[in-house]
Amino acid sequence: MIIPRLIQTFLSFHLQHKQKSTLLCYRRMENYQTMVEALNDLKKRGYTLDFNLANGVLHNSTENIVLQPEDFRICEVHRFEGMSDPADNSIVYGIASEKYNVKGVFVNAYGVYSDDISEELLKKLNTPE
């Protein structure tokens, strides 16, 4: 049959020319009630590293990984707003890096990191792929 042969040819070509492992980045946007619920579900789905902002880049201290904006993709974005205090607002990013073959999370409180963030990283966080 022609269709299975085409699929087999495509898969064979794809596997032969694959340069590095591809991290799957599903755009699954759940409607979480709390930030803790979102973080727990992301961790269950493989987003195991925690990234923090350090000197304008994302850094994971456990694995000592530094992510420049070009080193990762934003897979998911979840916004949470405080009930009584606007200062309680935050965004949870599910991110994946093929360069390091890792997935993790970055939590950004609205406005908190404005002084320590590079223009490139700010642009990346504000315009997920």
Report on the structure:
The structure is a single chain. This protein has helices at residues 2-16, 35-44, 119-126; strands at 49-54, 57-60, 65-67, 73-80, 90-97, 102-109. With 129 residues, the chain is α+β, with helices and mostly antiparallel strands. It has a six-stranded mixed beta sheet with strand order 3-2-1-6-5-4, sandwiched between helices.
SS content category: alpha+beta
The proportion of strand residues reads: 25-35%
Question: How far is the first residue's CA from the last residue's CA?
Answer: 38 Å
Please write the string of helix (H) and strand (E) elements.
HHEEEEEEH
How many DSSP-defined strands? 6
Radius of gyration, taken over Cα atoms and rounded to an integer in Å:
18 Å
Average pLDDT, to the nearest integer? Answer: 79
Described by strand count, sense and barrel closure, the largest sheet is: 6 strands, mixed
Shape: globular
Helical fraction equals 25-40%
Count of the separate structural domains = 1
With helices defined by DSSP (H or I, 4 residues minimum), what is the helix count? 3
Per-chain topology:
Layout (H helix, E strand, L loop, with lengths): L1 H15 L18 H10 L4 E6 L2 E4 L4 E3 L5 E8 L9 E8 L4 E8 L9 H8 L3
Parallel strand pairs: 1-6
Antiparallel strand pairs: 1-2, 2-3, 4-5, 5-6
Relevant terms:
globular; 3 helices; 129 residues; alpha+beta; 26% helix; 6-stranded mixed β-sheet; disordered N terminus
